[in-house]
Write a structure and sequence with these properties.
Two copies of one chain form a homodimer. Chain A has 332 residues and is an alpha+beta fold. The first copy, chain A, starts with a helix and ends in an 11-residue tail after the last strand. Chain A is built from ten helices and 13 strands. The radius of gyration of chain A is 21 Å and the shape is globular.
């Protein structure tokens, strides 16, 4: 059975049957002109979009369709996490190429459905178009956060501590391992990290409720770039310590066999989806005494300074401006 | 100045500066991980997505970029209108090809901005990616409607009247005129209709407040297809009268010079974005006595029957099943 036997409405039917996570917040799901979501009066709505493009963001030669479905939703949920929010629902626009079959679409939906269950985010609509060449996936997520509590990029203040929720580098080593076709078991973590990232919803909510967090962003372009985002939006400077940046162990193994600089590899590693945040010192110490709510990988990597002090990194006791090259679609 | 001189963040800056409609419902707009929207406690949220793909939905050889920006938002607003709602905000994912320049992007944003102002729908975020080949635009709109009042596809009941908000056919004749490169002034209306459709937000809100409307859908695939959608979702049949289907005058002129069947041309004309709705007879008569609130083109075209009576059309006193071929991406 081919795609043209199923037709557009057949595909919508399949889509509906695959997506099994439901929520009582949804008044109307897939199948009308729009979905309807019941209000939550004391909460603000978070609204975010992300597009994944074949050959730019994913490569079907090594990406299982099920992983692609997971990741397409996960990267959006990561944006909701970066605001301190909880997901409410998502909507999917899937542009498929002739390379896709009923089987691959089913696999894609299965991954999407798994992520939808894992983070309690029902899929409430979408459209499917056929594209002449590369496939493309755009997902929009609605989330919500207690009114006035969203964690923006602009709230960092001199004196705050700068932290990350976990070790970095595995997304990039995972991508390189996959691109090389390397099947060594020792890189399983890295592959999984790249193919099926985990949006840090749990960690974000714990931190929001704990209090004292002044800004937050998710690491999608690379740590260096995200630090600059926070400093620019908050009109502050910062100093980070190279030896405090947590590095994933499989990334370390991968880099050590190559001629990469470990630091620049990790600083430029995009699609990590850990959270970078600033927190008042008093709140940080309370966090320590609460054993970081089980976020055992949480790490303080620097502190926020006045803007006039610049954005600097201390490497072996010497300071230098933080200046690594991160991903920009228009500067390749 | 080329795209790579501006870079991704330069583009975001331009994007921000072009989009000038703001609303006090928006707590945080472009530039963070997500936008924040203040709650409206007694209203439900409408959530809708639409993707336009180059060579499938638009052709840049005759589509001005400014019109493309307008249309990309308008088709989404039409979905909000089809639910009886008002727009709250929109988010844009723009995938541009090498054919796009700073100038064409500026023109696109200008059209987007004009539509955003016309229907009071601020653009609160988005992303821009560079694609290897065809461009693609995905927009998601958040709208809202008084809780419990949304106009779904599933509410039509036997005895209701079936109506459209205005004449049809111009979207298709407009597209054919443009494809042929025909510059005759007599087809200006048709070209404009195709390039810059008007979402029927005003009409939809008037009808919702009037009461008695039982179902609604916007005509994006073609009248025939939309009638079937309403009948299928509402588990009803219907009878429409061919001679009551309103036809746009420039479409009539266009068709008369060709060998098309007028009826099938109009029935299959997609992207019209008029509203198709069902209404209780008593409410319809009240609508008449209110001069249709100035919706002078509103037309009753048939009535809803039991499902067992089928979906039929009466042509010159003879009835036949309503069976025209409408647009399906997977059945070309």
């Amino acid at each position: 059975m081919g795609l043209s036997d199923v037709g557009e409405f057949g595909l919508i039917k399949r889509f509906r049957s695959h997506l099994s996570f439901h929520s009582n917040r949804i008044g109307l799901g897939i199948g009308d002109d729009g979905a309807l979501i019941k209000p939550n009066p004391a909460w603000e709505t978070i609204f975010t979009i992300d597009t994944l493009v074949e050959h730019v963001h994913y490569d079907l030669s090594y990406t299982p369709f099920e992983a692609l479905g997971w990741k397409a939703l996960a990267v959006n949920l990561s944006d909701v996490a970066a605001m301190g929010g909880l997901p409410v629902c998502a909507i999917v626009s899937l542009g498929i190429s002739d390379f896709w079959t009923i089987k691959t679409i089913d696999d894609f939906y299965q991954g999407l459905n798994a992520c939808s269950h894992a983070f309690q985010c029902p899929i409430v609509g979408g459209d499917t178009v056929r594209l002449p060449r590369d496939s493309i996936i755009t997902i929009t997520v609605i989330g919500e956060v207690e009114s006035g509590c969203a964690l923006k990029r602009s709230g960092a203040r001199p004196g705050d501590y700068l932290c990350v929720t976990g070790p970095l580098g595995d997304a990039r080593s995972g991508m390189e391992v996959l691109t090389e076709g390397n099947n060594d078991l020792e890189y399983n973590d890295a592959r999984t990290r790249f193919l099926k990232p985990v949006p840090r919803i749990y960690e974000s909510r714990k931190l929001l409720k704990h209090g004292g967090v002044t800004s937050m962003i998710d690491i999608s372009d690379g740590l260096s770039s995200e630090i600059h985002h926070i400093c620019r939006e908050s009109h502050v400077g910062c100093r980070i310590f190279a030896d405090r940046v947590p590095i994933a162990s499989s990334a370390l193994r991968w880099i050590e066999k190559r001629e990469h600089s470990i630091l620049s590899f990790v600083m430029e590693s995009g699609e990590e989806y850990e959270l970078l945040f600033t927190i008042q010192p008093e709140a940080y110490y309370r966090l320590e005494s609460n054993q970081y709510y089980g976020i055992s990988t949480l790490q303080k990597i620097g502190d926020i300074r006045k803007a006039s002090e610049g954005v600097i990194i201390e490497i072996n006791g010497e300071t230098t401006p933080l200046n690594f090259q991160c991903w920009d679609h228009f500067h390749q």
